[in-house]
Design brief:
This is GDSL esterase/lipase. There is one protein chain. The chain has a single domain (32-364), classed as Rossmann fold (3-Layer(aba) Sandwich). By secondary structure, it is an alpha/beta fold. It is globular. The protein has helices spanning 2-25, 82-90, 104-111, 130-133, 139-153, 158-163, 172-180, 189-209, 227-232, 246-269, 280-288, 336-348, 359-364, and strands at residues 33-37, 114-116, 165-169, 214-218, 274-278, 300-304, 326-328, 354-355. Helix 2 (82-90) packs across helix 12, helix 5 runs parallel beside helix 8 and helix 8 runs parallel beside helix 10 (246-269). The strands form two sheets. Strands 2-1-3-4-5-8 form a six-stranded mixed sheet. A two-stranded parallel sheet has the order 6-7. The structure holds 2-acetamido-2-deoxy-beta-D-glucopyranose (7 copies). Residues 188, 190-191 line the site of one 2-acetamido-2-deoxy-beta-D-glucopyranose.
C-alpha cells in the first residue's frame, strides 16, 4: 500500500515537473512540424477536395465523437489522431492545420508554425486512392506544395525548416490496393515493394532539397489486421496467427526492413539528414499479442468501435462505449487511445520500435 502510494506520488511529481518544464520553456521541441501522408494523419485536407467521395472524408458524425465539442473535423478517429498526439508530445496543442484549408495569403506565416499536407486515401504511388476516393491530394502534390511554400518564404528560412520535424505516415493504401485489386497478373511482390521504396526515397530527397533535415517516418502497420481485411480473408489458410490477412501482413513485414535500408543509405549520402523510423509492425504486434501497456488495455482487437461488418462508420452506425479498450475506431483506423500508444512509442521508445533514435531525440538534435 505504502509503496503504491509512493509510486503514485512519484508519477504525480514527474507530471508536475514536466508541466513546469513546459510552462517555463513555453517552446515546443521544434519550431514547426510538417505532416505528410494518409488518413492516419489527415486533419481535414480531404474536406476541401470537391471530387473526393464521402467514404474518404471524415467530416460527419460519429467521427470526432471524443474530439473537443464532438467536432467531426476530417480526422479519421474518434478524437485526436497520430499527428495530433505526436504534436502534443512535441509541445504543440495538436497537429498544424490542413494545407488545403489555408487561404493563400496565410501560407507564408503559417509555415513558421507548421502545416499538415496529409490526405486520406493517398499513398506512395500517386495514382493510389483514385479508385476508392475519386480524388486525393497525392504525395507528389503534398511535397510540391511544401517546397513551393518554402520557396515563397525566401532566404532566411533554411534554419527554420532544417530544425523542424517532418512527420510522414504513408504506404498503407498502396498495400490495400495491391491486395484488394489483384488485376495485374504479372506482379511480383518484391518489385512492387521496391517501387514503393523508390517512390519514398524520391519524396524524401525532394523534402531534403527544400531544406528539411529531420524526418520521422512511420512504416505501414499490419494492414492485414484492419477489420476490413480480416473480413476479406475468410479461408483459414489466408489467416495468420493473429487472425489477420496473411498476404497483406506479409507485405507490411517485408516493407519495413526495406524502408530501413533505404533510410540508412539516404542518411549516409545526404549531409545532416537525420531520421527516426517507427516500426509499426512491431508496435501493432505488441498490442495484438495482448500486451497491457501503461494506461492502455486493449481487449477488442478485431472489431471496430463504430460500424463494422460491411458497413462503415456514420451517424447511425452502432458505437461502442468503452472506446479506450478498442484498437480500431472504424474498419481502417485506430482509436485515439491506440494512436496515443503509438505516438508515445514513437516519441519515447528507447529503441525497440524506433531506429536509430526516437522522435524526442530527433527533435533535440541541433543540426
Ligand atoms: C497527382 O496530383 C497532381 C496535382 O493534383 C495531379 O496533377 C496529378 O495528375 C496526380 N497524379 C496522379 C498519378 O494521379
Ligand atoms: C537565396 O540564396 C541563394 C544563395 O545564398 C541565392 O542563390 C538565391 O538567389 C537566394 N534566393 C532569394 C529568393 O533571395
Ligand atoms: C504490373 O506489375 C509489374 C511488376 O510489378 C509492373 O512493372 C507493371 O507496371 C504493372 N502493370 C500495371 C498495369 O500496373
Ligand atoms: C521478383 O523480383 C525480384 C527482384 O527483381 C527477383 O529477384 C525475383 O526473382 C522475382 N521473383 C519472381 C517469382 O519472379
Ligand atoms: C508477438 O507474439 C509472437 C508469437 O508469440 C512473437 O513471435 C512476437 O515476437 C511478439 N511480438 C511482440 C512485439 O511482442
Ligand atoms: C484488461 O481488461 C480486461 C477486460 O476488461 C480485464 O479483465 C483485465 O483485468 C485488464 N487488465 C489489466 C492489467 O488491467
Ligand atoms: C451507416 O452505417 C451502417 C452501419 O455500418 C450501415 O449499415 C448504413 O448503411 C450506413 N448508412 C449510410 C447512409 O451509409
Amino acid at each position: 500500500m505504502a509503496s503504491r502510494r509512493g509510486a503514485f506520488a512519484l508519477v504525480a511529481a514527474l507530471c508536475l515537473l514536466e508541466l513546469a518544464r513546459r510552462g517555463l520553456a513555453e517552446e515546443p521541441a521544434v519550431p514547426a512540424m510538417f505532416v505528410f501522408g494518409d488518413s492516419t494523419v489527415d486533419v481535414g485536407n480531404n474536406n476541401f477536395l470537391a471530387n473526393c467521395k464521402a467514404n474518404c472524408k471524415a467530416n460527419y458524425p460519429r467521427y470526432g465523437v471524443d474530439y473537443p465539442f464532438q467536432s467531426p473535423t476530417g480526422r479519421f478517429s474518434n478524437g485526436y489522431n497520430l499527428a495530433d498526439q505526436l504534436a502534443q508530445k512535441l509541445g504543440f496543442d495538436k497537429s498544424p492545420p490542413p494545407y488545403l484549408s489555408l487561404p493563400d495569403v496565410t501560407i507564408i506565416s503559417q509555415m513558421s508554425k507548421g502545416i499538415n499536407f496529409a490526405s486520406g486515401g493517398s499513398g506512395l504511388i500517386d495514382s493510389t486512392g483514385w479508385k476508392v476516393c475519386t480524388e486525393v491530394f497525392n504525395m507528389s502534390a503534398q511535397v510540391q506544395s511544401f517546397t513551393s511554400a518554402v520557396q515563397k518564404m525566401g532566404n532566411g528560412t533554411a534554419d527554420l525548416i532544417s530544425r523542424s520535424l517532418i512527420f510522414i505516415n504513408t504506404g498503407s493504401n498502396d498495400l490495400f490496393e495491391y491486395t484488394d485489386f489483384p488485376s495485374n497478373t504479372t506482379r511480383n511482390d518484391t518489385e512492387f515493394l521496391q517501387s514503393l521504396v523508390a517512390s519514398y526515397k524520391g519524396h524524401l530527397k525532394d523534402l531534403y532539397g527544400a531544406g528539411a533535415r529531420k524526418f520521422s517516418v512511420v512504416s505501414p502497420s499490419l494492414v492485414g489486421c484492419c477489420p476490413s481485411q480480416r473480413a476479406v480473408a475468410h479461408d483459414t489458410n489466408d489467416l495468420d496467427f493473429h487472425g489477420c490477412s496473411r498476404a497483406a501482413n506479409g507485405l507490411s513485414r517485408q516493407l519495413y526492413p526495406m524502408l530501413g535500408s533505404m533510410l540508412r543509405g539516404l542518411a549516409a549520402d545526404l549531409p545532416s539528414m537525420h531520421y527516426s523510423l517507427g516500426d509499426s509492425v512491431g508496435m501493432a504486434e505488441l498490442v495484438l499479442n495482448g500486451t497491457v501497456l501503461p494506461g492502455a488495455n486493449f481487449t477488442v482487437l478485431d472489431r471496430p468501435c463504430c460500424g463494422g461488418g460491411v458497413g462503415g462508420c456514420n451517424g447511425t452506425a452502432p458505437l461502442c462505449l468503452d472506446r479506450g479498450s478498442y484498437l480500431f475506431w472504424d474498419n481502417f483506423h485506430p482509436t485515439a487511445a491506440a494512436s496515443n500508444v503509438f505516438a508515445r512509442e514513437l516519441f519515447f521508445d528507447p529503441g525497440a520500435f524506433v531506429h536509430p533514435m526516437n522522435v524526442h531525440e530527433l527533435a533535440e538534435l541541433r543540426p
